[in-house]
Amino acid sequence: MAADTSDLRNGMCFKYNGEVFQVVSFQHVKQGRGAAFVRVKMRNMASGRVIENSFNSGEKVETIRIEHRTFQYLYPEGDELVLMDSGTFEQINVNRKLIDGVEFLLEGSNVKVLWNAESDTPMTVEIPESVIQTVTYTEPGIKGDTATNAMKPATLESGAEVKVPLFINIGDLIKVDTSSRVYMERVKS
């Protein structure tokens, strides 16, 4: 399906130089005397690299039909993870490299898969924006040492390591932002 560069929107996928890209951000630029163009930051869906490119206004691009599907993470299998479609119960294997923040996944967690409907293949896997997990290991906090914003390392039940405030102890439930890998808050159980 062909589209005009003026139709580009964030999240849209298209083919360019034989590869699939997703629009990260775009900006329409109209110069005083020159022709208008569209400056696009786009992510290569195969490598994950983000590049910037300019297209002439009105230039045609081939869009790709994508779907967002919910899958459940079942278990790891070598360099891949086994996911199950929540609707059809079909299982697929996905390379770990497609998942940013894979260290926060617990078996049974739901993930969103960006699915290329034309080639019927997964493109990327998005984990939840935040997770709540139990701290399995951290050094004990020292009483009275809470006046500063000092942080200490902690290991979560998924095996991920994050920095937490000194008052966090083993067994505490904490909420973590998966994109920045930053402690957000302690959760009451």
Largest sheet properties: 6 strands, antiparallel
Mean pLDDT: 88
Task: Find the count of extended strands (DSSP E, 2+ residues).
Answer: 16
Molecular shape: flat
Description:
- The protein is 0% helix and 55% strand.
- It has 189 residues and is an all-beta fold.
- The chain has a 6-stranded antiparallel β-sheet with strand order 1-6-2-3-4-5, with no helix packed on it. Strands 9-8-7-10-11 form a 5-stranded antiparallel β-sheet, with no helix packed on it.
List keywords for this structure.
16 strands, 3 domains, OB fold (Dihydrolipoamide Acetyltransferase, E2P), single chain, flat, SH3 type barrels, mainly beta
How would you summarize what this structure contains?
Helices cover 0% and strands 55% of the residues. It has 189 residues and is mainly β.
Write the SSE topology.
Elements: E1 2-4, E2 13-16, E3 19-29, E4 37-44, E5 50-56, E6 60-63, E7 66-77, E8 80-85, E9 91-95, E10 110-116, E11 121-126, E12 130-138, E13 151-156, E14 161-165, E15 173-177, E16 182-187
Antiparallel strand pairs: 1-6, 2-3, 2-6, 3-4, 4-5, 7-8, 7-10, 8-9, 10-11, 12-13, 12-15, 13-14, 15-16
